């Protein structure tokens, strides 16, 4: 690590739990961030600042004036531009040490799986259930850790689905896919700006922990925040043995079918 890097990342390197070794892992890491909006903004900024070496930022949307109340990756100069490209420029300006790939795409399942396979960790910073379930399926198939965040009105949630571990629950174990789920969208219900900053920042912290192997990620735990009362809660949950998405993986110790 050269002097410029030692200086830039000094406050991380000073942490015993992270150190030079953890910083080297960050610099070599490949991170996939789906969504360059409210959650993706702080998540991507903190990961780029931390020197996460390769960031792929995916969003097919363009920056609108109503985004700027909370999507801090973008500014006035980005209005009308694709969020992935506006975001890439902001991340490169913050840290030229990081390689950022901007994808202005709506990802189908096979493309998601391909991108998940190439990543060390995936951050779900999307804003709808269909995308969340598609990202989960891709991460289960690719066996990649998924850091999931959500925020609406004054409520936020974060969890980590470490799908490298056969016994760890997936997103579907906790939130089964159903046709009758009423979806709340920020566009119609509103969301407190700093709330997405809190949730996205926790996602960045969890991603750094997954990459470096330090601490205890939010695996099997759902962290929720009520920003109106500023109360945080954690609930524990287990893998659903009948989950249609991850159950067929079977526990690591189970015999393979027919074998
Ligand atoms: Zn599952």
UniProtKB/TrEMBL annotation:
Highest taxon of the lineage: Bacteria
Q: What is this protein called?
A: HesA/MoeB/ThiF family protein
- The regions listed as transmembrane in this protein's record are none
- Pfam families noted in UniProt: ThiF
Occurrences of domain THIF-type NAD/FAD binding fold (ranges): 9-245
Q: Which SUPFAM superfamilies match?
A: Activating enzymes of the ubiquitin-like proteins
């Amino acid at each position: 690590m050269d002097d410029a890097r030692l200086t830039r990342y000094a406050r991380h390197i000073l942490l015993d739990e992270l150190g030079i070794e953890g910083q080297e892992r960050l610099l070599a890491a490949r991170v996939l961030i789906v969504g360059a909006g409210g959650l993706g903004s702080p998540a991507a900024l903190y990961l780029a600042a931390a020197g996460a070496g390769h960031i792929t930022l995916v969003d097919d949307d363009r920056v609108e004036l109503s985004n700027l109340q909370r999507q801090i990756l973008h500014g006035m100069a980005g209005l009308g531009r694709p969020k992935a490209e506006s975001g890439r420029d902001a991340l490169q300006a913050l840290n030229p040490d990081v390689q950022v790939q901007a994808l202005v795409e709506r990802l189908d399942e096979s493309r998601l799986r391909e991108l998940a396979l190439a990543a060390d960790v995936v951050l779900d910073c999307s804003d709808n259930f269909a995308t969340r379930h598609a990202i989960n399926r891709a991460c289960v198939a690719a066996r990649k850790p998924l850091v999931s965040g959500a925020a609406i009105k004054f409520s936020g949630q974060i969890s980590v689905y470490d799908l490298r571990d056969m016994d760890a629950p997936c997103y579907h174990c906790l939130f089964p896919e159903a046709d009758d789920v009423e979806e709340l969208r920020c566009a119609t219900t509103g969301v407190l700006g700093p709330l997405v900053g809190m949730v996205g920042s926790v996602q960045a912290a969890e991603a750094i922990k997954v990459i470096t192997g330090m601490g205890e990620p939010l695996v099997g735990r759902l962290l929720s925040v009520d920003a109106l009362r500023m109360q945080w809660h954690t609930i524990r949950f287990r893998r659903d043995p009948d989950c249609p998405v991850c159950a067929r993986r079977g526990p690591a110790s189970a015999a393979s079918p027919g074998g």
